[in-house]
# Entry
Amino acid sequence: MNAIAKMPKTAKERGKIAPAKLAHVVLRTPPERVKMILDWYKVVLEGEAMYEAEGLGFITYDTEHHRIGVLGFPGIKEHADGYAGMHHVAFTYANLGDLMHTYYRLKEENILPEFTINHGPTTSMYYFDPDKNQVELQVDNIPEENFADYFSNGEFTSNPIGIKFDPDELFGRYKAGEAEKDLLQRPDGTPPDLTEFPAN
Ligand SMILES: [Fe+2]
# Structure
């Protein structure tokens, strides 16, 4: 049976009171690792500390007071793969150029994606922070006003997982001046098995 996808009306359009925005994510870690985790998010997100003290900190990259918080809890247990809970947090860039710039900038810092895939709706690069929280950096492949059309055109239902891509190859094509709309087009191919996705 094929799934039906459509763009729901916003809660506001349905006359409901819903949150005005998604505000922040807060992570916990052993106190001695707080600075390392904060530093990683500063680098990855081009963030700065709104507040930083021994054992906790808050980072922002825009007008929000914090987008990522890190709290040190004494005695906290190490990350273990395979537990129920949050899988990843995603950040969307304005365009492929910004994502490619960020990919290259992070590569220069030896921060590399674990997995890169064109899902169809997005071009996505998945990273692990030093505690193995998964962070997706992505760009929308289609303009927001075309989401509903896209989800009905059959591409997504034929493969809701995506097609993996080589980030250096995509970066090379981008640097060579290929049009973003062509680079964002999902290639034909076989979707990866879910076991190929990085585990956390
Ligand atoms: Fe995602």
Remarks:
- The chain has two domains: 21-73, 87-200.
